[in-house]
Amino acid sequence: MAKTLLIEWKELGCKAHIQLLWDKAPKLCQAVVDCLPLRSISWHSVISGDNIGFALPVVCTTFENPQPRTRGNMYIYANGQLGIVPYGGFSEPGDVNTFGRIDQKDMDDVAKAGTTVAEFFRKGPGRPIFVDISVVN
After folding, report:
1. Which of 45, 72, 103, 114 has the greatest number of beta carbons closer than 10 A?
2. pTM of the predicted model over 0.90
């Protein structure tokens, strides 16, 4: 059973390790692992705060481990099939399907990737920033 995922924004020199929460969200963890490895396009919230994410081909229409949005937790935003990590302040309320936790030593890299992707979103049309997600153990 995979325990850790690796998210890499290679062109930015940023990475993050995600500890999967198998004991709290086994179905969601399995669905995520089953779609990996994956190259996706980075996403950033526009109005709800400091949230970086990526398209994730997982359909999740029920709650499994619903938790409040918390800095450093990884969750799936089911309305858009997005894997998301809040890295700073955020304003959107409500519980989300939490399936992982970012290693705290990687939070500076997540914040760097987040602010860079946010700036790309603010500037308008342009090239995407890719992210690679894989299982490391």
Report:
1. 114
2. yes
